[in-house]
């Protein structure tokens, strides 16, 4: 659950625990899903990739030492508009400055994709279906896995190409997980390792075989794999409108750390 406002040390309107969670997990997710190019502006991390993924084309405002927030937002707008990109800010529950979300709202930035960051600390192994086959492969890239991912996601070709480029850019260790039934792929997900944390990205199940606990069983397998490989925590991100996934992860014992959303302004060409 989110930290109670009456607990911990306060820091600019949020608890110290919440601030620390945001700083840690935004660092992990930024490393695990890297942009093509980075720039820094008065402490803000400005990310460019010329693609369709908001995280790799947005401002991450975790630190700020400017003096005029609205003026600096206009400077950021110029940076994105020169590249013919939408202007996007990723807004976690802790930002710097803490009133940035209100500034963007007053500047007509619209809210997009509210998302919750969830995690689980691993303490013991749990059973998973032995009737399925599970594969974990450490690799820089897995062509077979990615073709299965493309099939299950029905992702447009342009976005699929961009995602492949992101996976190739990940400098951390990658684990490609697959669950099979009768020697047929029925579920896939990508794990990215850093320190003793693993981030789970894009858990997908064959659309024709959903509601049969393949995703749930694959996550149980991943948890046991992590324990065997000295990984103590799993984190992931779920959009608020994905109630089925939210319910599954809650059932698996994942807790909500904090939420974030994007603020977006259409590009000027």
Describe the structure in your own words.
By secondary structure, this protein is α+β, with helices and mostly antiparallel strands. It has two domains: 112 residues, no CATH class; 109 residues, Gcn5-related N-acetyltransferase (GNAT) (Aminopeptidase). The strands form three sheets. Strands 6-13-7-12-11-10-9-8 form an eight-stranded mixed β-sheet, sandwiched between helices. A three-stranded antiparallel β-sheet has the order 3-4-5, covered by helices on one side. Strand 3 and strand 4 form a beta hairpin. The N terminus is likely disordered.
Keywords:
269 residues, Aminopeptidase, 3-stranded antiparallel sheet, disordered N terminus
Helix percentage: 25-40%
Number of DSSP strand runs: 13
| Biggest sheet overview | 8 strands, mixed
Strand content is 25-35%
Name the shape in a single word: globular
Strand order of the largest sheet: 6-13-7-12-11-10-9-8
Query: What oligomeric assembly is this protein in?
Result: single chain
Question: How do you describe this structure in short?
Answer:
With 269 residues, the chain is of the alpha+beta class. The protein is 32% helix and 32% strand.
Protein topology:
Elements: E1 10-11, E2 14-15, H1 16-32, E3 37-41, E4 44-48, E5 59-60, H2 69-82, E6 87-92, H3 100-106, E7 110-121, E8 133-138, H4 143-153, H5 157-169, E9 173-181, E10 184-194, E11 197-205, H6 214-228, E12 233-239, H7 243-251, E13 255-265
Parallel strand pairs: 11-12
Antiparallel strand pairs: 1-2, 3-4, 4-5, 6-13, 7-12, 7-13, 8-9, 9-10, 10-11
């Amino acid at each position: 659950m989110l930290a109670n406002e009456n607990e911990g040390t306060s820091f600019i309107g949020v608890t110290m625990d919440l601030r620390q969670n945001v700083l840690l997990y935004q660092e992990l997710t930024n490393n695990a899903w890297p942009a093509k190019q980075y720039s820094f502006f008065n402490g803000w991390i400005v990310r460019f990739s010329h693609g369709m993924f908001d995280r790799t084309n947005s401002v991450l405002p975790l630190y700020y030492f400017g003096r005029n927030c609205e003026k600096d937002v206009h400077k950021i707008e110029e940076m994105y508009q020169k590249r013919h990109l939408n202007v996007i800010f990723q807004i976690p529950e802790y930002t710097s400055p803490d009133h940035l979300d209100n500034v963007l709202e007053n500047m007509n930035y619209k809210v997009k994709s509210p998302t919750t960051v969830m995690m689980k600390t691993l303490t013991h192994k749990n059973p998973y279906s032995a009737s399925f086959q599970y594969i974990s492969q450490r690799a820089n890239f897995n062509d077979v896995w990615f073709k299965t991912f493309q099939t299950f996601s029905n992702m447009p070709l342009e976005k699929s190409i961009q995602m492949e480029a992101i996976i190739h850019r990940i400098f951390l260790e990658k684990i490609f997980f697959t669950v099979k039934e009768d020697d047929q792929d029925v579920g896939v997900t990508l794990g990215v390792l850093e320190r003793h944390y693993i981030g789970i990205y894009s858990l997908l199940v064959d659309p024709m075989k959903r509601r049969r606990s393949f995703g749930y069983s694959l996550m149980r397998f991943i948890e046991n794999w992590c324990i065997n490989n000295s990984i103590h925590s799993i984190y992931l991100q779920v959009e608020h409108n994905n109630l089925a996934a939210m319910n599954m992860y809650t059932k698996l014992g994942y807790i909500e750390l904090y939420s974030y959303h994007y603020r977006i302004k259409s590009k000027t060409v």
